[in-house]
Amino acid sequence: MADQSKFPPLDAARFPRMADKEQPLTGREAKTESLRCLFCFDAPCIAACPTGIDIPSFIRKISTGNVPGAAKTILTANILGASCARVCPTEVLCEGACVVGHDYEPINIGLLQRHATDYVMERGISVLEPARFSTGFKIAIVGGGPSGLGCAAELAKYGHHATVFEKDGYAGGLNTYGIAYYKMKPQVSLQEIALVESLGVTIKTGVTIGKDIPSESLLADFNAVFVGIGLGRGVRLGIPGEDGPGVQEALDFIRDIHELPLAEIPVGKNVIVIGGGNTAIDAVDQAKRLGAHTATLAYRRGEAQMTAYKFERELARTDACNILLNAAPIEILRDADGNVAGLKFVRTRIASDGKIADIPNSEWIEPCDQILLAIGQIKQQNLLHKLFPDLVLDAKGRVEVDPLTGATSLPMVFSGGDCANGGKEVVNAVGEGKKAALAIHRMLTGKNPTLPVQHSRHGVNGQPAGSGLLAPVRVSER
Amino acid sequence: MADLSIDLAGIHSPNPFWLASGPPTSTAYQAHRAFEAGWGGFVWKTIGDPIVNVSSRYSAMHIGSARIVGLNNIELISDRSIETNFREIAEVKKRWPRHAVIASLMTDTREKWHDLVKRGEDAGSDGFELNFGCPHGMCERGMGSAVGQNPDVAEKITSWVMEIATKPVIVKLTPNITNIIFAARAARRAGANAISLINTINSITNVDLDRFVPEPYVDGYSTHGGYCGPAVKPIALNMVQSCAADPESGLPISGIGGISNWRDAAEFLALGATGVQVCTAVMHRGFRIVEDMNEGLSAYLDSKGMRSVKELVGKAVHSLRKWENLNLNFKRVARIDYDLCIGCNLCHIACEDGAHQCIDLVNPDSNGIGYGPGRMPHKTVPQIREEDCVGCNLCSIVCPVDECIEMVEIPTGKQPMSWSNYQDRLANGQMAPLPAHP
User: Fold this and answer.
1) ipTM here
2) Cβ–Cβ of A57/B291 closer than 8 Å?
3) Is residue B1 in a domain?
4) Does A459 touch chain B (CB under 8 A)?
């Protein structure tokens, strides 16, 4: 069992707002909610799920009292179903697509999925079995985040042996270190990693490919390689005053929340988070919940250009975070002791062509004592070039992959997750890892994996939308 | 993993879940889809001289937002030719040798019964089901329920079939009869191998109050239909148990009637069915429902330490006695869990108007009950007067919160005494009459 002292338990009495924001359903509530589901055929929720979980089926199983069966349906499609139940932006995925949401409230798929996965995890019920025979094929997985774990678990199902190489002390990637604490605790991710291992996957932590093991030996010693290294360090602002204490990447701040007792985390009185995406929202909201007097999110463009989901922005507002729009940071001001004292902004406007321009003579200073940067993570082009010099990357520095198979320009190498998609959700990473695993299985054995969908012989004028695994349908927020 | 395979009077099936004869079992296409989805058996839509159906054919009983609590149909037997049906049975059996394919038959003369049976056996059917149950259309011509309601006729026709059949024969019984065990006994006397019940129940689901015609609507008129679906499960369970407990019936039973999930199926098995058949639930949601049925039943058997589904069959048959043999000295009262009570007060009004007037509405402050989840402050809450509660358990049924009202046994210290014991003791002067309820 992994040493969990690295992830201290929450002192809920002192930091009640860092407890899970969403309460899990009771058995009674789960049953009632599950009965609202219509059990659609070729359901839109399945088409919207990037791992193609058969949602109506698992909800029906909850309603008949077959909760372990529900967990099996979920985890078979998505090995990180427990995390996804907590962190997926369901408003723009399954719940956003739910047909019941048309006239009423959509079915609370996220909480139902959590109910089923919690049920088996809490009781130690095992619903997945390791494959009964081994094919003898070995696959190396570079990176133990959601895409690597998704790929490894799927390969294990077909009897292939996957070895995951993770440079960090624990696998899970951002799923372990980077999720907003009030959405999910790292212990859930550790349990999922244990589940992946129970399928016969080998996970080696503290191993950096390229340093501890040369990438050439992966290509020589394994039948295929999956690259799931995610994204790199946070982008810096590059403005005067940035270097020095009090300015931190938001992801490092969030990592500290996982690794340190919350009481030890330095939180300023007046915190400013720079950025407009979901990570920025996570950071500013957690700063407020940890006790910042004011927590402000500053974004250089307007609200319409923010990439953060509407429901996340609403959460930040509900939690009394301030949102400054059209505010571009130009200088960080420090006091005599070198501590952050304020941030100078200039007002911007967005031209009709979308270009951003500073408005002259509109500077002002926001007092603050801590600044968190959430303006994106760099792509790991240099590392990728070093590991696989012939691997083709696209103009944005992402691994160029076939969207259906994760195949790269190198015949033995597949990729998925943030390093290939540029930075999406956990569920996208798992789905991409899974697709790559299916393609690797086909490449190594020549056999097509069977995905269970019954097609109608008459369904020729439009194939069933089927599983979102192949091409998830994105729903816009209501 | 429990073994779900069954053997119904010699018909082997990988699991107890069969599709009942009806619209889902009309074609080979459907049979292939059904077996692919995981069903164990398929009872073909009744084969006989092809009929012509009307439009519309179905109506339903919806209750609130619950759709198809009951389904009513006026569809008749197969409208496809006998040749087509048997050719398709042969095709299905070739592809699915280990699944059960049963030919349901309905015709009139002895010669025609013999002909259908022989052709069915040539096609490779694993067995036959004799349809003595259609409550509309066919009975008007002396077939279907006209046969089922008359045990002597049913016995005669069954014996014709038994003259020829070498494969197992199941007689499907109609519930539209005074006492179904007489029909079951007739099947046994004729030498049938098994019985299946129930077929559909005579019904009219609604009346259109503008046109003054029930549904299904056919050019200004309607007709009596056959009712099925979840609403009929209690009637079916009762009849299955009656046959299972009747020593003169004694045939293996295929249980039919409102089965939607594994739990329903397990209840039929516990009351004496060897296997089950499903129709309405598939018409509502498709063949895919069988996945949870197989999985859920298997998990249930595992949880009970039963290694085979056969161990479940009949476990509850003998838990039913005549009313007069139930213990009058068994006392239970209802108790409310105030941590769960939401203050809807439905238990009070049900008891007040509909039962025994022993639930009072009291002030939560003065009775130390306090405020449960979301209950309005200072609003009265229900309290059961245990000394007056007769333990009828109406409140526990009315209460919308699972497990909020529990029936709790109160030891009386008295010896068990049934009504029939009581009558004996009165007759022997061993006790005085019990006082009547005030």
Assistant:
1) 0.89
2) yes
3) no
4) no
